[in-house]
Design a protein that fits this description.
Blueprint (H helix, E strand, L loop, with lengths): L5 H13 L2 H6 L1 H15 L8 E6 L4 H14 L4 E5 L2 E4 L2 E3 L10 H13 L4 E5 L2 H5 L8 E6 L7 H4 L2 H14 L3 E5 L5 H5 L5 E5 L1 H7 L8 H16 L4 H9 L9 E2 L7 E5 L4 H13 L7 E5 L10 H12 L2 E4 L9 H9 L24 E4 L3 H11 L5 E5 L6 E4 L3 E4 L2 H8 L2
Parallel strand pairs: 1-5, 1-6, 2-5, 6-7, 7-8, 10-14, 11-12, 11-14, 12-13
Antiparallel strand pairs: 2-3, 3-4, 9-10, 15-16
Length: 426
């Protein structure tokens, strides 16, 4: 779908090859800044002709973006969308196959240009800390900025949790019109301090007041819905229209998505890739188990040097909730998959009731949960499905709706957890 300016792309690739790596790395901030503004200039600053909503936070961004787009569509507003769940320009939708939530600077400006030419008046963008760090948000005029929540994430990438939060803050520094904030977020005051013409707060009390119902599982999804409602009402969409749109959303692809092929047990595919997300997913599913039901968990962790501190945390949380565990490959990149699995496994010896922290100390042994290590992800899923009996729930985390797996040598192989489950359940 994306076809960048070929001449500029060739020049950029040539520049990357001839400039020594150490100099290129030192000059990256300037490079990213220049490329962002060059992209906006090449495509005529298309965001200035539309109202752009930027959604940031640690969790819930993708679902919130998806819900906002659905509500706008129900209201008859021409909308475009970018997120890890996919792309949308009015009626045309296609999957995100880039292995990056927020496209590069040229690609995102090209998308905005196409959205403008298609007659879109609104654009909803999922804004990541990595995207902000690489200045992909520059050259975009944001009409409103939305905060879902803040948890520890991408610590190794940003160097510290403080740097991670500051990256998120830059979206609100840049957006001057409307800020929409989760008032139950502990870091709320940090985001409230940035100037804007309007500030809208949403929180748990709104759910109780509105009396809404949803097929989406988990309290975390209720917060995502509240964020989407706040955005929609800011643009004049009535609550009746909002409720009609939400009633049509029966699932979010790859987010607590139940796969039903007539089997006597439940199968859930979820993207959960942070300790907090994994804890919430497991807790929700555990509470919904039948009296004799078991929670059978298939999980791995991303490679490429990404937040290695999370791996033992995944193990600790899985040991807390899961009756059976199958450790497997996720996105190893150039790391040794077996070593990644071993790091998850190391968390099994930690106290399951200790709060998540990157520096959790060993605090006694726990009763060992039954687990296996099967690096072949398809075989791992097959093992979990074969083990499941009536009343059990199999939950497969880490990939969600992603359509590829990143392996060594910069290669991507086609992959879909949901399709593998459906194939195996035939």
């Amino acid at each position: 779908m994306f076809r960048e300016n070929k001449v500029l792309e060739k020049l950029l690739n040539f520049g990357r090859r001839i400039i020594p790596k150490k100099f290129f790395k030192a000059g990256q901030p300037v490079y990213h800044w220049g490329l962002a503004w060059a992209g906006a200039l090449i495509y005529g600053f298309p965001s200035r002709s539309m109202k752009v909503v930027g959604v940031t936070g640690t969790k819930g961004k993708s679902t919130t973006v998806f819900l906002i787009a659905k509500i706008f569509e129900e209201a008859g507003l021409p909308v475009a969308m970018i997120g890890s769940l996919g792309y949308k320009i009015k009626e045309k939708e296609w999957p995100n196959t880039l292995k990056m939530t927020m496209p590069g600077r040229l690609k995102i400006q090209q998308f905005l240009y196409r959205a403008k030419n298609a007659g879109c008046k609104y654009v909803v963008l999922e804004i990541t800390s990595e995207g902000i760090k690489q200045k992909r948000h520059l050259g975009i005029k944001f009409d409103s900025a939305v905060l879902t929540n803040i948890y520890k994430e991408h610590i190794e990438n940003h160097g510290s949790f403080e740097n991670y939060v500051r990256a998120k803050e830059r979206l609100f520094k840049k957006t001057k019109l409307t800020h929409i904030l989760n008032e139950d977020e502990p870091l709320l005051e940090r985001f409230k301090k940035f100037k804007s013409n309007k500030k809208i707060l949403y929180g748990w009390h709104d759910w109780e007041k509105l009396g809404l119902s949803t097929e989406l599982k988990g309290d975390f999804n209720k917060y995502n819905i509240l964020a989407a409602i706040a955005v929609a009402e800011n643009y004049g969409i009535s609550l009746d229209v909002i409720k009609k749109a939400l009633a049509k959303v029966h699932l979010i692809p790859g987010r607590m998505e139940f796969v039903d092929a007539g089997q006597p047990f439940k199968v859930v595919v979820d993207y959960a890739h942070t300790p907090d997300s994994l804890d919430m997913v497991y807790d929700t599913l555990k509470k919904d188990l039948s009296p004799n039901g078991r929670l059978i968990c298939v999980l791995g962790a991303a490679g490429g040097g990404r937040d290695k501190w999370k791996r033992p945390e995944f193990g600790r949380i899985a040991a807390k909730y899961c009756d059976e565990i199958v450790l497997t490959n996720e996105d190893p990149y150039d790391e040794n998959p077996l070593e990644i699995v071993k790091q998850i496994e190391s968390g099994f010896s930690k106290n399951p009731n200790d709060p998540p922290t990157p520096r959790l100390q060993r605090a006694g042994k726990i009763q060992m949960t039954k687990y296996e290590k099967i690096l072949d992800r398809k075989e791992a899923i097959k093992k979990a499905l074969t083990s499941a009996k009536e009343g059990d729930t199999v939950v497969i985390t880490g990939k969600g709706s992603e359509t590829s797996m990143a392996v060594a040598g910069g290669q991507k192989i086609s992959w879909s957890d949901k399709e593998v489950v459906e194939e195996l359940l035939k």
